[in-house]
Recover the amino acids of this structure.
């Protein structure tokens, strides 16, 4: 038997550039998440989308990155297809898309566990800020791209 080091726990957070390589989390609605129609309120989905993105960042960022940079949401575009009911657990998949300067598109899908159809699909634009100046960086530094396991040359660019 060989003595191998433990696998890198952040490895599953790197290279998330498609729904096939997405970072996956699971949630179950809380009673306060349910609206008057008896399903998860649309605002809750947006919170889950943000929580998944923030968890991905915090999972790959080292202490220096966390100190120097912060991501803010510039835009959410959310499509709602099917409701999530109080007793249903969901799978949340998030991955990075196109890059331009300090901006990244992030994609998120939420679906009920065991369902082939998504309930919510979102595209969010995130901007990297300098935490001290609170101004956008000129571009996403290579150290951050490396931490995300991304090759800038292979990423799509958006207008």
């Amino acid at each position: 038997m060989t003595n191998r080091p433990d696998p890198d726990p952040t490895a599953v957070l790197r290279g998330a550039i498609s729904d096939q390589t997405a970072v996956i989390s699971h949630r179950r609605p809380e009673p306060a998440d349910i609206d008057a129609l008896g399903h998860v309120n649309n605002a809750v989905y947006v919170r889950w989308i943000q929580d998944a993105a923030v968890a991905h960042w915090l999972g790959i960022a080292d202490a220096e990155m966390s100190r120097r940079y912060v991501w803010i949401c510039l835009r959410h575009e959310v499509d709602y297809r099917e409701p999530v009911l109080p007793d249903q657990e969901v799978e949340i998949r998030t991955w990075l898309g196109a890059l331009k300067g300090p901006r990244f598109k992030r994609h998120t899908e939420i679906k009920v566990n065991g369902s082939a159809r998504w309930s919510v699909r979102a595209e969010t634009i995130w901007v990297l800020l300098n935490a001290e100046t609170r101004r956008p960086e000129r571009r996403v530094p290579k150290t951050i791209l490396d931490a995300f396991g991304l090759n800038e040359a292979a990423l799509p660019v958006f207008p």
User: Anything to note?
Assistant: The CA atoms of residues 131 and 148 lie 19 Å apart. Confidence is low (pLDDT under 50) at residues 1-9.
